[in-house]
Design brief:
The structure holds two protein chains of two kinds. Chain A is α+β, with helices and mostly antiparallel strands. Chain A contains three helices and seven strands. The chains are: A alpha+beta, B alpha+beta.
Amino acid sequence: MKPRTKFLIGATLILMVAGYLMASSIRDTGVYYVTPTELAAKLEKDPSLRGVGIKMGARVVPGTIQRAAGGREYAFQVTDGARVVPVVYRGIAPDTFTDGVDVVVEGRMGQDGTFHATTLLAKCASRYENAPEKYRNTPGYKAATTPRA
Amino acid sequence: MIVVGELSLWIALLMATWCATVSFAGGLGRRADLIRSGERASYAASAFTLLAAIGLWKALLSRDFSLAYVASQISANMPNVYVFTAFWSGQAGSMLFWALILSLYSAIAVWSNRASNRELMPFVTGTLAAVLVFFLATTAFKANPYSRLDWLPIDGRGMNPQLQNPGMAIHPPNLYLGYVATAIPFAFAIAALVTRRLDAEWLAAVRRWSLLSWFFLTIGIVLGMWWAYVELGWGGYWAWDPVENASFLPWLTGTAFLHSIMIQEKRGMLRKWNVTLVVVTFLLSILGTFITRSGIIESVHSFAQSPVGSWFAAFLAVSIAVTAYLVATRLHDLETKAGLESMVSREAAFLYNNLLLVGIAFSVLWGTLFPILSEWVRGEKITVGPPFFNAVNIPLGLLLLGLTGVGPLIAWRKASLSNLRRQFLVPALSGVAFTALLLALGMRNGYALVSYMLAAFVAATIVQEFAKGVGARRSIHRESLPIAFVHLVARNRRRYGGYIVHAGIVMLFAAFAGLAFRKEFDVSLTASQAFEATDPYGRRWRFVSQGVSTAKTLNRLVTAVALEVQRDGKPVGFIKTEKRQYFDSQERPTFEPSTEVGIKTEARLDTYVVLAGVRDDSAELRITFNPLVIWVWIGGALMALGGIVVMWPQAERRRQSGYAAQLRPATQAEEAVPVG
């Protein structure tokens, strides 16, 4: 066998293993990234999605964050403007988690219609560029200071 | 000065456009006057871009809040050092910063080649100017840092406190210096393709630029890891975040190129591959800048919102089309002269090294873009996270680590059995012995054991090489040990600098494997309450809360908790962690509160404490034992050091002008001696 052929066999083997690892880990660990509206539509079509890992991006409804006394459990609501979903989360919330911020929660939709989150990420619209929404309305922080360019 | 800067931006754009036009025209029409004009325009574009940059710095430092960029990036009471770094903290400024570095690099490349590579240079100058036109035009039309507000704010919005960190002050410039440096090899590749001069000439011209890019990317990435670790407070330094991946991609393909270039120099193989790698590395740098700046991955809708998004997409598409056309029409000129002679040879090891590096790059790119791809193809956004990247990249990375030991020592063309035995017997035994030791000590994690076996193997190959070299010098030149070591490295910088880089890689892998043993605890402590835990080495730790305190300083309100720490009953000092709320000169809060992590570093592990919040006098803390983290920073520093050794210019000059060169004039292929 020519060395070139041998090399190509080895290369194919490596690429096949890499491809298999990629495909299998996407199948096993890939999660849907949905908005509350998309989530509702999905659940209507396929109720078995309750209990499947899902990522949801939405905005925290101001005034809904409740923190269990002494504990690390948070209950709040998120919305995409059309639908509101109640969420419970156990763990340490990030610094940026407050009213009105965009969050990404990862977890499962429970039978009770509440989203049980295991991770909670909060983000600013453009991570380091824009101040949180609420300051835009304070005097001296007109939206004009938020050039998206 | 600010008006001068604004005006200079437009003049620089004109100059760069002129430069690109006449350089290509001069090169194609072989008109010396046009070529000269293009080179002068390149210097001029560089000078005016510098003026534009100085103008923006001036606006920032004089806190001219009539500029939207200044008002959105800083506040009056921020220290000057972070006002200075605000230049590249926002989108508009960072676009100008890209253009600034590119224009300066271009001027250096044009100047240093004013008497060499004359056939290539018009196209190099032209290509660089074309890229500069893109960045200046995007800055001027779509993200102009000089655009003004129609009203004058009392104060600016201030900088995100997470960016007010020394690491963040130097991490982006390094990354940009690395990203932008890939443009020079790209320009030479385009020039070589256009002129069909695809031999070693252009490779020799770009090697140092590729190294420079690799060097800055390495520093930039490691600094980014350090910043994420000390500032973000989630306990780790790498999260496979799209922005991190974006900086990792050109590093991977750039590293592949630095290895495959040796095969072309030595054996004339891989000509198509090398051109492709250079182009891909540049495109990934552009993509990286774009991902970092647009947030396209994180948010479904930001692609449309980001004003520079469509421009970047168009630029990427044009670059891909142009290079694909050039490569396709020059396939014949890129035919390889030699082939692979044996599977047991350095060529084969390097080919596998390239395959793995590019394979890792592909999987990282795939995982990073998967949310977008799945949305396009299936209409559903599916994301993949660290489990995906780890599942694919740990096995590939470990194979690569093994090759790090094999590649530099195995013979070219075809290795003999005696070559293999001489080079690999001791390292292989070292790897097995070290694994046996770890097993005996009770380590049972499979991936970690394989990592440490390979790390010990590679470390032994490196030690063996240095020992042989130093031993030879000592017996021939009768030098003392340190002198022999210094001379050994100095006389063969490319080879031993490469080994130093590899030693850094070994440390990084050893540190990564340590993460398999990290431990995390969430605790609530009131004043004088204690928490006890056992670290991965089996040592007992005791943390006693000293209570919560608050303090107000120049621009922030600080809530702090200190823990008295004991290890195995002995006091080892205090760890302090803070929550900070920044405010502007009117005492209005800017941004959300941020966390100041408390870290106690030892060679064996970091004790990492985050204050999550305070509730009823009780501090909620997350305490993490992070094994071996310090070796990430030491390994990164070692890689940078190795990079400097390899790049140090004197070695080549001596080879060219030294005594040996006079006796036997080196051909271009010989002049660039590969590692090993």
